[in-house]
Amino acid sequence: MASPPVSVGRPATIHDIAALCGVAPSTVSRALSTPDRVNVRTRERIQAAAVELNYTPNSQAKALSSGRTAAVGVLVPDITNPFYFDLIRGTQLQLKAAGYTQLLVDTEESDEVEASTLEQLRKSSDGVIVAASRLNDESLAAAAARMPMVTVNRDVDGVPAVIIDTPSAMTQALDHLISLGHISVAYIAGPVVSQSSARRWAALTQVAEDRGVQVRNLGPFAPKKQSGAAAADAAVHSGVTACIVFNDLIAIGMLQRLRERGIRVPEDMSIVGCDDIFGADFCNPPLTTLSSPIEQAGRVAVSMLLAQLNPLGGGGVRSRSVMPTHLTVRGSTTSAPGN
């Protein structure tokens, strides 16, 4: 075949291939996107011409014709929170292996930013993974009805979800503190809109009632290290001897504030965090915390989303996956004062 002239610096198009093969551009498009719809001889000529002209498909045009973008949105409420580092890594690796691009968005702990981002991603992605959504149940369910979605740490009827089972680990955390003689414990609560925080408090109160010990709810607090100072002051004022904290960032901030006030951890007050983020074992003292397979949670979320996108793959679509959590004991907990 004699190649038709192609402008220097301009990538080849399906029109160039069509001219070289003597067929219509629509035939070239079918041969490259749905080859079974074109007879073998014509298809082979078109494919040979595409190689000869070093043709590269236009991804945007392909998306328009197929309705697919090969991109998946991943929304997190705070990209600076180390909890999400492993989650993002898990989604990235799993998406890359499946041939998808990850579109990472920080929704700034804002339901408005999250809602507008989801609306934008309807056009630019094939589906979304939403971690710790700040939307109400109705809004989240409505968004999931408009596009393939999997949530992480948010349980809403009708929306596939990966749940990191920290509420069940509340039993381990409280039993650990009780075994050390603590009978007055505070839960340092996270944001009001956090379903995880509400579920942990509900689980903790039930366990406390069963064990015959007192727990009190202090907060809410923003899930940032800066919140630790106010949380520590509230804990000291309440008179408790131990705290179970919404996340490690607040707990680390509490360690710093308690040290400033001359209150020893763990001798005067024990602290249990949640998430086992990078750096939790580098604190002074190292933080006792609830550990979860966070990277694996990201991978599972992607697998569940891809099952929605490719229902003919034969793997089945899971509506819910629960990731186990366990207590990791370090230096921030010890016997209650006077024991």
Automatic annotation (TrEMBL):
Keywords: DNA-binding, Transcription, Transcription regulation. It comes from Pseudarthrobacter enclensis. The keyword DNA-binding applies. This is LacI family transcriptional regulator. The keyword Transcription regulation applies. Residues 12-66 form the HTH lacI-type domain. PANTHER family: LACI-RELATED TRANSCRIPTIONAL REPRESSOR (PTHR30146), TRANSCRIPTIONAL REGULATORY PROTEIN (PTHR30146:SF138). InterPro entries: HTH_LacI, LacI/GalR-like_sensor, Lambda_DNA-bd_dom_sf, Peripla_BP_I. GO terms for molecular function: DNA-binding transcription factor activity; transcription cis-regulatory region binding. Pfam families: LacI, Peripla_BP_3.
